[in-house]
Amino acid sequence: MPDVCDPTPYDALLLLSFGGPEGPDDVVPFLENVTRGRGIPPERLKEVGRHYFLFGGVSPINDQNRALLTALREDFAGHALELPVYWGNRNWAPYLTDTLREMVRDGHRRIAVLATSAYASYSGCRQYRENLADALATLAAEGLSPPRVDKLRHYFNHPGFVRPMVDGVLASLAELPAEVRPGAHLAFTTHSIPTAAADTSGPVEEHGDGGAYVREHLDVARLIAEAVRAETGVEHPWRLVYQSRSGAPHIPWLEPDIVDHLEELSGAGAAAAVMVPIGFVSDHMEVLYDLDTEALAKAAELGLPVRRSATVGADPRFAAAVRELLLERAASERGERPERCALGALGPSHDLCPVGCCPARAPRPAAAGADSPYV
Prior knowledge:
The chain has two domains: 12-155 and 314-333, Rossmann fold (3-Layer(aba) Sandwich), CATH 3.40.50; 159-308, Rossmann fold, CATH 3.40.50. Helices cover 42% and strands 11% of the residues. The protein has twelve helices and eight strands. The chain has helices at 27-34, 42-48, 50-53, 61-78, 96-105, 122-141, 159-175, 195-199, 211-232, 258-267, 285-302, 316-333, and strands at 12-17, 85-89, 110-115, 148-151, 184-191, 238-243, 272-276, 306-308. The protein has a four-stranded parallel beta sheet, with helices on both faces. Strands 6-5-7-8 form a four-stranded parallel beta sheet, with helices on both faces. It is globular, with a radius of gyration of 21 Å. The chain starts with 11 loop residues before the first strand and ends in a 42-residue tail after the last helix.
């Protein structure tokens, strides 16, 4: 990485996330934002929102983004990186368009964007780019000159993302009873998506057989399993599994589901398991409900000792990784050839999403890519 913290040409960083309700009255309006255009009736949204109501109608994701904002600002200040950090959401306040409007009025013209999704997929990358394009179009319609936005590359294999998860697995293994610990299986979990979306994730040359989405998760799972073996001297069996399916039953989604996998492990006589949510940056609702509530309840029913390891959240190593990704991209934009830090077999991801990367079912303008209308 560059020795000097020079963010040129960037004059601000935008933390771009999903958003979540912060009280019972927010739940249905939030879900209306998430599902807009799908024609889902309010009664169905209330049913879907029951997971949120179990937690007082509050998703933890906004507080976790506030914690990450603080960690980023502290890391930047500690390295004399004078770059303001803003925060905007796709589906709840602070809304992306409002934040970009504020950034423009504060005089920012070249903005680096960190999305809280580490992997390639339509919902984890392209859709955020579409949201950026929508927001920029709104600003232009209001008579404001849209800024240039550049989305930082996927960071699934950056050491600052991987190493905190390794430590989380080690801590969870240590919490298991000593007699079952050596035989514990590692269940690496991520959000299930339709197989069609998985197969077309990433650049065109990576499409097919799960695409970049599955390939990237498998690489991270392998990295963590190998690091755990190196630290403990025990080779734990592992598998990539999925959670949080929300689609129609007739549409194929990635499997197996984590609950089904726990049943399979129990039936096969596994001693214990650690659920490792590698697909999630922080402990938001899919982690709190699908793993900490539903999956742990199933494990208790099965009599299977199970622990859930930590997500990265606001770990200082992750904040440092964001700084490194920002400076790396800035150096590249200046025409330099910076070191691009990545672990595993896949190497560093692309800076600019190519044409055909993670396509939508219906083509829409997307910013921060080779096909962006905003350059």
